[in-house]
Amino acid sequence: MKKIVAIILAIGLLIVFILRYLQNEDDENVPANVEFGFDSSLRYMSVQQGKLFYFKCSGIENIDRMEVSIDGQVNQGWKISDKSLVDFEMTTTDLEIGTYSIELRGYQDNEVVSSDDRFLFVNSNKKTTELSYEILDTHPHDPNNFTQGYEFYNDRLFESTGNPEQNNATKVAEIDPETGASIHEITLPNPIFGEGITVLGSKIYQISWQDQKCFVYDGLYDFNLIDTLIYSGEGWGLCNDDQFIIMSDGSHVLTYRDPETFEIIKTVNVHSDRGPVTNLNELEFFNGRIYANVWMSERRFQHDSRMSLTKIVVINPQTGAVEHYLDVMDLFQKAAAKNVPNGIAYRKKTNSFWLTGKYWDSAFEIKILPKNTGDAH
Length: 377
Hints:
Elements: H1 2-29, E1 44-48, E2 53-56, E3 65-70, E4 73-79, E5 87-90, E6 98-108, E7 111-123, E8 129-140, E9 147-153, E10 156-161, E11 171-175, E12 182-187, E13 194-200, E14 203-208, E15 213-218, E16 224-230, E17 238-240, E18 245-248, E19 253-257, E20 264-269, E21 280-286, E22 289-294, E23 311-315, E24 322-327, H2 329-334, E25 341-347, E26 352-357, E27 362-370
Parallel strand pairs: 1-7, 8-24
Antiparallel strand pairs: 2-5, 3-4, 3-6, 6-7, 8-27, 9-10, 10-11, 11-12, 13-14, 14-15, 15-16, 17-18, 18-19, 19-20, 21-22, 22-23, 23-24, 25-26, 26-27
């Protein structure tokens, strides 16, 4: 019996030895992992539009081909003939400003042996510069107004408000510029939470925060509600370019919409030279540019640390580039405000901007200047 047990143990040990030997043979045929040189803690990579995106690759002796995909489509590939090659570059000339998913794959005999996926920010290739401003005048503003939209139309001032206390505070009003009081207004019942407005033709458009409704009023004097347009997602700010309604939703994306149907025409990704500028709020269109308030960064992470809640950004809507920004912290402090800046209205009659905020007691009339110069912008 002991001999049988000994034989069984010997056979078992032999089998284990053979399996380990075979496993070691297989391991020698398995290529080592390829490293693409990205910091494992960084999910987002950045490059300026049109510039080359560089990365390093170690373990390249284990692959014969490498390719990069953008949003699931192969963008560029390399045959690896030189095993000493370390540095690689990818062109971004054909990529518009925006945020893309990027994946690098290493192949050996047409089999994927290593991959790495991240997000790629294609940022503005022009420096985002700071502007300054001159205060021309100070005007009264109703401190009970949780300002969401602010716009001059034919030298008449219109304002929309939100409803944070759920006390039927959502309204659209024409404002007396001299007193800050409503000349006439219309309110919407709870729980509608009003957001931005814009005037196009004889119609006033007012979006809501999470109700996914845009209220359309015809008649600039009596505010007759003539239509309710539906959209998906949140509504934040509104403006128009005399053709389309332009809407923000708190992200870094602006959406162009058909004024009759509210269907999406196109979207624009907004990036500075450092990254996407998110939390875009109240909007104003002037002289081919979009001016936008920036909401608090805890809403969505802000990749450009300069873009805090006291900033107004100037956006080129053709490219999405943030060309300039100005800091209105001084106005925030002067307003004795209970809340943040939100309200940008360009007044053609005086060639000036009126800026206010949520529950502010003042609206400030300013002229925007290049930083540290006396020349008007």
